[in-house]
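fwd from M.: "can u put these together and see what the complex looks like"

so here's what she sent:
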Amino acid sequence: GAVVSQHPSWVICKSGTSVKIECRSLDFQATTMFWYRQFPKQSLMLMATSNEGSKATYEQGVEKDKFLINHASLTLSTLTVTSAHPEDSSFYICSAEGLAGETQYFGPGTRLLVL
Amino acid sequence: QKEVEQNSGPLSVPEGAIASLNCTYSDRVSQSFFWYRQYSGKSPELIMSIYSNGDKEDGRFTAQLNKASQYVSLLIRDSQPSDSATYLCAVFLLYNQGGKLIFGQGTELSVKP
């Protein structure tokens, strides 16, 4: 149980384009999902908290107009990186909060490379 | 002071030995603590959660929590080369809009055959 999927696993795009990443909880409903970014040799940095049916809560320093988050259902949250630039290249990981709360289960991550 | 601190390592232990990973946190009201393992190029996977002072054992893994000292540790007995990974300590923080996990920098563990 508690399986989280992400799609795509890899994406390469040109600078200026937008990229959408999907995060799905496969066998449980998640009212809260989280989006993280991880640069090489660094820890996970929380970008935003995604709540079903409401606006996402962004961490300080994260541009909400650049990183659009939609959590339209209890099993799906999407992160759209708008007008991507090379500095946005990173490992993007989502997690979903389990039914008991607090415990987070991570998706496999999406590697984004912006050329 | 960082909210969650870990030694970055690398920590190197021989196969079969006990690996000891340590973590300190700054928020005294934190109640929930987690250890995640992350292999290179992969996302984190949950190993243990601990909420009460003392020890919690699961197979070869033992988590230890001391809230008075704001200290949480992970012991790995009979370490195997497959345990080589980065271990992330995470602390759950409540705030008025909900809660979130704060991760430490991670400790890189290398188990030598």
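replying to her w this: The longest strand of chain A covers residues 90-97.
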